[in-house]
């Protein structure tokens, strides 16, 4: 309905209430009473709201000093380096912003001997041009690179040979550095930055085995080595300078406080892929932030109403850490009952201090990977500034802050804020003298809090914390994770009562602490779970099969425990959203809860920084359209239409309307499945690839639907024609009628399961081909050992159900084989779905990877059979496929409320109950299997009989309305 009230304004508190009309307006209807008033808080809506606030940091903190060890700041000048590419390619930053999000990236491809020129905008890589490198240049050997920048001009030279001249360099970033993505790496012998018209460098370094290098690199073989998935600046700050403690005391007048909201942001969350700050008000925890966003910068809203004291001195305290762009900016509005507002902002009156003595740099928690840099936290409680988070701090170690300028382009976080849930250990075991093991019971994103009292004799005593997803054979925590992360911190105690607490997060189940035997830690530990809170309404499932119920709960845990700032692949190794993860994760979330904010936010993020895998780029439009079906809100489809359209592979279409391309290009790599080669069933890659075309067909189909919704009717027809032509060509050229399967491509007879599975799941086959395809899919022992990954199995299940193989799909979900969810639970001890079926398949697997949680989707959409027909869940089809289950019962969540399905069946009787939410219609379909309409009894919510039930072919169709409809078939 249109907004019927006055327009809300910035930084306003409003209240609203609702009542509901039952029945039709103008007819017999009744209005309910009014609901209790609900508070609506409007945060800052534009830059003027932040006019009085500025970004602050500690003096001497991140990126302050213009000379080493601060970033080398030089807009115009010459950057020179001697380097070689040790992977496929490597990137060099110039004119880049201090948070590495805006500027220029020259990617040098050693295999293809090309320069790919990229303009970075808000973290997104926008290709400019491709340049062929001159003959004789071998980037796999050391070369001398120089980039001369002057105004809008950038000249690039390798070994003094001109490579490129660009006169359209518009962004005025001040820094230089390096960036790698998956498969990329480089070694650097030296680097120099000399400003224009000067002779003295602002940065100069020659690297050898004794060099100190930034955290994104390491030294080896006499060079600075930058491995894959790393980035950073030259002359980056010393790690100890990353910590900032910021505080401010302020007085509030007497009166009744009706609401107090702290709006806060920080820069930059990208290097660590986590929050920049945690904040306390009057020594009480208030929240963390900001979350990552692309194209704008997020601020968080913290409700601190209950934490403030009118007529008293109050304190805001931030503990912050970042590699780049160190700034915290905040605005506090305190609303009083008489209508006036007290406002507190970050500015020159704030105090700060570095945290190096309290939190000395102990290295990065990454030991084998470089996706992000996050600090190990070796806390020395003897140097904590006691009482710094509370009013009237007595210490003299805080100084006026450094003003860092306004954080602009701010936008309220699109998702619910990350909250905090406290858990006590599920069990505590003393492994030996001074050795304790705490089992959280479930793997989650945690920080650890230790609260204890140490006598004077134990001041200086160390606690070594080791956290892991698994246990070693001796019962200790496996703190060197398979994923390449090392969770180990050392905390040093002071005398007296104390609380030590992680600032950052780790993802684990087990905590081991080694210390002296004199300390009793049995009651000392609390696990702090930082996660977007679970919505009030969530899905449920129970059946007559205990294994299936276990599998559903495993998948539900993967939804519950991974609501972070974005839908990440895993909180352990990469902390990044990817298209392949998004599709399974998002589809699981929408059937488990009506929490759509993180889904939409992650979709928005991903289409602005697409990955490199060809098929993955075709997936976001499917997720975006399915989100529209859930919500009925097409705004996101309309806003990002050009981005969804941009990622399609239409430039590769051949004369038959099929994608024809090389398997690998720098930004488009055909993947099929992962890990390889174990999980691709011997797939043979060809230039016309069945899997790539199946995903492109599905994307074109969704684009056609999305265009229609968005009013782009010409586009809808165009995409529909392209999709149909592609589908026809695939069925003519790739489908083997004799086998009932698809070949891997146009130029091969090989039939990996992926070619047929994806095609069937994504709608490529003709209807009369589906039965034969289903028979092929379940042949050759594929149900005994699933020959696809725990991510791709989502589409195996989808294909089986679409092909009428309900029993086979059920057997896959409740299998006890080594490629099963049962194996994850009982063989490997997982409490969330893993990245792979086992570490034997993927040695660096994680135990917190929602991309393996597809049974929660298959159970909701197919076994319980709840599928949306019309946008906004206004029309719903309920077509259960329980196979041989005696009982299956569950709730599938929609934006209008849960759809409850309860099935009981035996040889003589089938009972079905479907409860629909209000303002919803639907149809129940059930196979009669020879029964007649006379054998069916239907009871509708209004008490009427089953006269509206129909028999269509061998199917029973029963109309559904709000309330419970019961069906019995004898």
Automatic annotation (TrEMBL):
GO biological process entries: carbohydrate metabolic process
Alpha-L-rhamnosidase concanavalin-like domain mapped to chain residues: 430-518
Limits of the Alpha-L-rhamnosidase six-hairpin glycosidase domain: 537-855
SUPFAM superfamilies documented for this protein: Six-hairpin glycosidases
Pfam families reported in the protein's UniProt record: Bac_rhamnosid (PF05592), Bac_rhamnosid6H (PF17389), Bac_rhamnosid_C (PF17390)
Record Gene3D superfamilies: 1.50.10.10, Exo-inulinase, domain 1, Galactose-binding domain-like, Maltose phosphorylase, domain 3
Broad class of enzyme this protein falls into: hydrolase
Key words, A-Z: Hydrolase
Keyword Hydrolase: yes
UniProt domain Alpha-L-rhamnosidase C-terminal: residue ranges: 865-929
EC identifiers of the protein: 3.2.1.40
Catalysed transformations (reactions): Hydrolysis of terminal non-reducing alpha-L-rhamnose residues in alpha-L-rhamnosides
Residue ranges of coiled coil: none
Gene Ontology MF term list: alpha-L-rhamnosidase activity
PANTHER family: ALPHA-RHAMNOSIDASE (EUROFUNG), ALPHA-RHAMNOSIDASE (EUROFUNG)-RELATED
Protein name: alpha-L-rhamnosidase
Organism, scientific name: Bifidobacterium stellenboschense
């Amino acid at each position: 309905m249109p907004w019927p009230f006055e327009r809300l304004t910035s930084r306003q508190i409003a209240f609203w209430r609702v009542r509901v009309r039952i029945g039709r307006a103008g007819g017999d209807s009744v209005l309910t009473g009014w609901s209790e008033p609900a508070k609506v808080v409007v945060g800052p809506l534009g830059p003027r709201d932040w006019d009085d606030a500025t970004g602050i940091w500690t003096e001497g903190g991140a990126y302050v000093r213009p000379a080493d060890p601060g970033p080398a700041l030089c807009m115009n000048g010459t950057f020179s380096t001697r380097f070689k590419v040790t992977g496929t390619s490597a990137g060099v930053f110039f004119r880049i912003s201090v948070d590495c999000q805006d500027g220029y990236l020259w990617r040098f491809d050693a295999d293809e001997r090309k320069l790919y020129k990229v303009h970075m905008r808000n973290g997104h890589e926008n290709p400019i041009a491709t340049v062929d490198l001159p003959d004789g240049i071998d980037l796999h050997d050391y070369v001398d690179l120089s980039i001369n920048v002057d105004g809008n001009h950038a000249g690039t030279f390798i070994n003094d040979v001109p490579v490129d001249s660009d006169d359209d360099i518009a962004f005025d970033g001040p820094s230089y550095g390096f960036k790698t993505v998956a498969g990329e790496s480089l070694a650097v012998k030296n680097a120099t930055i000399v400003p224009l018209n000067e002779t003295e460098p602002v940065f100069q370094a020659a690297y050898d085995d004794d060099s100190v290098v930034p955290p994104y690199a390491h030294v080896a073989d006499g060079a600075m080595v930058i491995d894959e998935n790393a980035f950073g600046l030259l002359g980056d700050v010393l790690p100890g300078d990353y910590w900032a403690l910021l505080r401010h005391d302020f007085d509030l007048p007497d009166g009744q406080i009706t609401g107090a909201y702290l709006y806060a942001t920080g820069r930059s969350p990208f290097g660590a892929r986590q929050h920049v700050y945690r904040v306390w008000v009057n020594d009480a925890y208030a929240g963390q932030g900001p979350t990552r966003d692309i194209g704008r910068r997020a601020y968080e809203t913290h409700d601190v109403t209950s934490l403030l004291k009118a007529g008293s001195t109050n304190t805001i305290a931030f503990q912050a850490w970042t590699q780049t762009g160190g700034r915290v900016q905040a605005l506090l509005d305190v609303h009083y009952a008489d209508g006036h507002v007290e406002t507190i902002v970050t500015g020159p009156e704030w105090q700060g201090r570095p945290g190096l003595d309290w939190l000395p740099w102990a290295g990065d928690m990454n030991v084998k990977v470089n996706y992000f840099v996050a600090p190990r936290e070796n806390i020395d409680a003897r140097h904590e500034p006691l009482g710094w988070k509370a009013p009237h701090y007595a210490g003299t170690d805080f100084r006026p802050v450094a003003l860092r300028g306004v954080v602009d382009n701010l936008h309220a976080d699109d998702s619910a804020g990350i909250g905090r849930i406290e858990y006590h250990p599920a069990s505590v075991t003393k492994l030996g003298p001074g050795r304790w093991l705490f089992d959280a019971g479930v793997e989650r994103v945690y920080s650890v809090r230790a609260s204890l009292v140490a006598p004077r004799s134990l001041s200086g005593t160390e606690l070594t914390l080791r956290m892991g997803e698994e246990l070693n054979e001796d019962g200790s925590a496996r703190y060197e994770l398979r994923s390449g992360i090392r969770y180990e911190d050392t905390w040093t105690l002071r005398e007296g009562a104390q609380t030590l607490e992680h600032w950052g997060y780790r993802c684990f189940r087990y905590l081991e602490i080694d210390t002296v035997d004199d300390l009793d830690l049995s009651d000392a530990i609390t696990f702090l779970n930082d996660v977007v809170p679970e919505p009030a309404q969530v899905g449920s499932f129970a059946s007559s099969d205990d294994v299936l119920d276990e599998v559903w709960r495993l998948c539900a845990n993967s939804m519950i425990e991974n609501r972070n700032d974005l839908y990440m692949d895993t909180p352990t190794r990469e902390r990044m959203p990817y298209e392949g993860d998004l599709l399974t994760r998002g589809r699981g979330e929408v059937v488990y809860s009506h929490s759509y904010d993180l889904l939409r936010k992650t979709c928005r993020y991903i289409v602005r920084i697409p990955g490199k895998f060809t098929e993955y780029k075709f997936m976001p439009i499917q997720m975006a359209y399915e989100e529209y079906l859930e919500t009925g809100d097409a705004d996101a489809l309309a806003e990002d239409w050009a981005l969804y359209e941009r990622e399609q592979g239409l430039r590769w279409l051949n004369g038959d309307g099929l994608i024809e391309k090389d398997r690998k290009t720098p930004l488009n790599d055909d993947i099929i499945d992962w890990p390889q080669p174990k999980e691709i069933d011997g797939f043979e890659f060809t230039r016309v690839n069945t899997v790539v075309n199946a995903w492109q067909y599905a994307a074109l189909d969704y684009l056609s639907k999305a265009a229609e919704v968005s009013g782009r009717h010409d586009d809808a027809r165009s995409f529909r024609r392209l999709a149909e032509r592609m589908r026809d060509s695939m069925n003519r050229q790739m489908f083997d009628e004799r086998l009932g399967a698809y070949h891997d491509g146009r130029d091969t007879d090989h039939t990996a399961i992926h070619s047929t599975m994806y095609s069937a799941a994504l709608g490529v086959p003709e209807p009369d081909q589906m039965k034969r395809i289903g028979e092929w899919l379940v042949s050759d022992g594929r149900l005994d050992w699933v020959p696809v990954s725990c991510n791709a199995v989502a589409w195996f299940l989808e294909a089986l159900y679409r092909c009428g193989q309900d029993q086979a799909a059920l057997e896959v979900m409740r299998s006890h084989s080594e490629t099963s969810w049962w194996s994850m639970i009982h063989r490997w001890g997982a409490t969330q779905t893993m990245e792979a079926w086992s570490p034997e398949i993927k040695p660096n697997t994680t135990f917190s990877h929602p991309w393996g949680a597809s049974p929660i989707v298959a159970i909701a959409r197919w076994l319980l059979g709840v599928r949306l027909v019309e946008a906004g869940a206004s029309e719903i089809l309920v077509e259960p496929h329980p196979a041989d289950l005696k009982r299956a019962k569950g709730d599938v969540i929609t934006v209008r409320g849960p759809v409850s399905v309860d099935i009981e069946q035996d040889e003589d009787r089938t009972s079905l109950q479907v409860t629909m939410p209000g303002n919803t219609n639907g149809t129940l379909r059930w196979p009669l299997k020879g029964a007649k309409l006379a054998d069916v009894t239907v009871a509708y919510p209004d008490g009427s009989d089953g006269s509206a039930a129909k028999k269509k072919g061998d199917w029973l169709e029963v109309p559904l309305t709000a309330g419970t409809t019961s069906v019995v078939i004898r």
